[in-house]
Amino acid sequence: MSRKVLITTLPLNANYGGILQAYALQRVVRDLGFRPVTDTSRPKPLLKRLRWRLLRHPYRWVRLASPARVDWNWRISRRVTAPLRTFIARNIETGSFMEVGGTPRGSVRLARRFRTFVVGSDQVWRAAYANIPAQFLDVLEPIQGDRPRRISFAASFGVDDIAEYSDDDRARAAALIRRFDAVSVREKSGVRICHDEFGVHAEHHVDPTMLLTAEHYLQLVSRAGGAMSPAAGRLLIYRLDANAEVPRVEGALRERLGIPPLDLLTPWPPSYRAYTANPADFVRPSVEHWLASFASADFVVTDSFHGCAFSILFNRPFVVYANADRGADRFDSLLGVFGLEHHRIGAESPLIDDRVFTPDWTRVNRVLDTERARGFSYLRAHL
User: Fold this and answer.
1) CATH: 1.10.510, 3.40.50, 1.25.40, 3.40.5. Which one for 4-209+372-382?
2) What is the pLDDT of residues 208-220, one digit of tens each?
3) In terms of DSSP bridges, do strands 35-39 and 94-95 run parallel, antiparallel, or are they unpaired?
4) Which fold has domain 226-362?
5) pLDDT digits over 143-166, tens only?
6) Run of H or E including 275
């Protein structure tokens, strides 16, 4: 029987957490003896797909032939995010497979090629970010008779309800999820949503990045040949969105800890002229540098879910600002697993809890070992 597994997730764009969760899930599935591929196609109706195939190369040539300043945002985006795309090319096996399933014949070909389809992780079941029918594997519906296995792992709704779903999305998701062989979600609220909205049982698991050990990620850093401790002695700032709370907390921590800050995320070029004057100021750090920074920081301030997850994984003291627009429930669920709710800051909790400076990492690591074993056991049983 085929051991090939197709993983579908959100697009692998310039998002460190999204890239690393895709890497981690694929690596874990491979370590379990399967042959995983992460799908990078964008499901489209057949006519749109044909039109795109005919036009995409000429369109790209026209853009590349145009003066850079005419289309600088697209051109610079490729240059600024080049280190992230390099990591994907070297470490994640990808392919465009789901797009061939737009017809009954294409769906049958897809099903013959893969034994199991895995949805996850990240906010794949959040309507604001994803194509809901596609992420519930509607591509497999035309198949008659035996169908390949369908499971999810740590799939996230992002928020604690599905108010973003249209009526059609609700109906489609409810019908499609009942065809899954096993359902795993990343937030505890996801277990409730699956039960109350769709009538299915779901298991709760941590993000796949946490199934790999800190040592595994440090080996990635070592193989890349970069600095192992770029944030040693620094207050690491990893902020995705502008808000007034993080700078306030940063100032208070800088004063208390007596260490200088280090902004991990480079700014986006405000103009083509600014980029060409100092391109190195805007190029995003490599994924390996990102990992090494979290691993070596004296303290972390972040508003990122995966920034929070890797602070826990690397046993770094941290505080996290839970961004409600991006989905605050994600942080509450993650922190709740490890008993670290006091590490969350926000307008409703302006003070920094003294316990954030001395986490009980021995207890946290015991919980992490248990959650890691549960995740492996689920995948081993259902792949």
Assistant:
1) 3.40.50
2) 999 999 999 999 9
3) parallel
4) Rossmann fold (3.40.50)
5) 766 789 999 999 999 999 999 999
6) helix 272-277
